[in-house]
Write a structure and sequence with these properties.
heterodimer, A: mainly beta, Immunoglobulin-like, 11 strands, 49% strand, B: mainly beta, 4-stranded antiparallel β-sheet
Chain lengths: 111, 115
Amino acid sequence: AQRVTQPEKLLSVFKGAPVELKCNYSYSGSPELFWYVQYSRQRLQLLLRHISRESIKGFTADLNKGETSFHLKKPFAQEEDSAMYYCALRAYSNSGYALNFGKGTSLLVTP
Amino acid sequence: EADIYQTPRYLVIGTGKKITLECSQTMGHDKMYWYQQDPGMELHLIHYSYGVNSTEKGDLSSESTVSRIRTEHFPLTLESARPSHTSQYLCASSIDPQGAVGGYTFGSGTRLTVV
């Protein structure tokens, strides 16, 4: 069965420090992965997707099929990056195609 | 403004009451979804729809029901609310079922408390 694991519930870093939010997945098919972010008092929104190989707000994520990972990275964290981050896997199941989300990691960037 | 709207934002209701959580979007998206999220837990898909008169149950079993009579409207109904239904309910829509094009657009959510 497909599963998304975000092992860290809370990650606290200092401003300017590198940050890496971990995401591992299990899926027998060809994975498509996404990162969603929820800032305080805002809605959940798409941050980036692996298929685009893009950098958004300085964040990047590389799909590593060997390690079944899709970690989110930023070299220099900013205070405005403080938010809840969810990794999501597009998977096919009895429900058809839909996004499966991890439990999320709360990132806190302190000055 | 093209967006997705959920009402109410917060609802506290007694056991046994019938409730309907509203979700409407003005983006013309065919695909709509309902997710349930308990505090500190992942989002679980409970219902989805790929178009008018199309509704399917998600991976997480739910006693709620949905309807899709109009493209823009995807309400969720609980015939008899119970404390176990206390949760946050998130509505989302997308152009494609995988969210590969533009991702999913989420509403602000409804936080339901059944007492």
